[in-house]
Amino acid sequence: MKDCIFCKIVRGEIPSYTVYEDDVVKAFLDISQGTPGHTLLIPKKHIANIFEYDEELASEVFARIPKVARAIKASNPDIKGMNIVNNNGQIAYQSVFHSHFHLVPRYTTHDDFAMIFKDNSNKYTADDLKKVQQSIVDHMGD
Ligand code: 5GP
Ligand code: ZN
């Protein structure tokens, strides 16, 4: 993709602080450094989001995440954990439309990363959940 910023990084047209690279993926520091060591792992092949992976590319890309995650964690003794985040679609905060995984090292409960899942469990009956379950099951393999 000619104008994709991450394709430009893959081609070396935009510099990046690369921490890992092979024929399938590139991992480089996120320019925002939400927390120190914040890294993006991307497939070199341009695909927009999670919905576009086939099983082969998914297994190749996902297989490389733990290695990069371990290296980041080992790089700084203050890293206590890590959030791995993958945004898909503008509504889900995706701003660069070349699939990528954020590896966000966590240092303290009050560092510069936060994620909120509301607990709506009291709004669902077992029947409601069964309907949601069935609707997803019906589309498996689409
Ligand atoms: P998204 O919001 O799509 O999940 O994440 C896109 C990320 O790409 C952002 O965290 C942003 O800081 C990062 N980013 C955008 N442009 C560049 C760039 O030119 N170089 C690097 N290293 N990161 C970038
Ligand atoms: Zn791209």
Structure explained in plain terms:
It contains four helices and five strands, in the order H-E-E-E-H-H-E-E-H. The protein is α+β, with helices and mostly antiparallel strands and 142 residues long. It has a single domain (5-114), classed as HIT family, subunit A (2-Layer Sandwich), CATH 3.30.428. The radius of gyration is 18 Å and the shape is globular. It starts with a helix and ends with a helix. The model has no long low-confidence stretch (mean pLDDT 97). Bound molecules: guanosine-5'-monophosphate and zinc ion (ZN). Zinc ion binds at residues 1, 4, 6-7, 46, 98. Guanosine-5'-monophosphate (5GP) binds at residues 5, 14, 16, 28-32, 87, 93-96. Residues 5-115 form the HIT domain. Pfam families: HIT. InterPro entries: HINT, Histidine_triad_CS, Histidine_triad_HIT, HIT-like, HIT-like_sf.
Q: Helix and strand string, N-terminal first?
A: HEEEHHEEH
Gap between N and C termini: 26 Å
Strand content: 15-25%
| Helix share bin | 25-40%
Q: What structural category characterises the helix and strand content?
A: alpha+beta
Q: What is CATH's topology name?
A: HIT family, subunit A
Could you describe the largest sheet, including whether it forms a barrel?
5 strands, antiparallel
* Rg, Cα atoms, Å: 18 Å
Q: What is the overall pLDDT average?
A: 97
The total tally of domains equals: 1
How would you describe the shape?
globular
Low-confidence stretches: none
The CATH architecture can be given as 2-Layer Sandwich
Question: How would you write the strand order of the largest sheet?
Answer: 1-2-3-5-4
Strand runs, count: 5
The level 1 CATH classification is Alpha Beta
Q: Which superfamily, in CATH terms, is the homologous superfamily? A: HIT-like
Instruction: List the bound ligands.
Output: guanosine-5'-monophosphate, zinc ion
Number of helices: 4
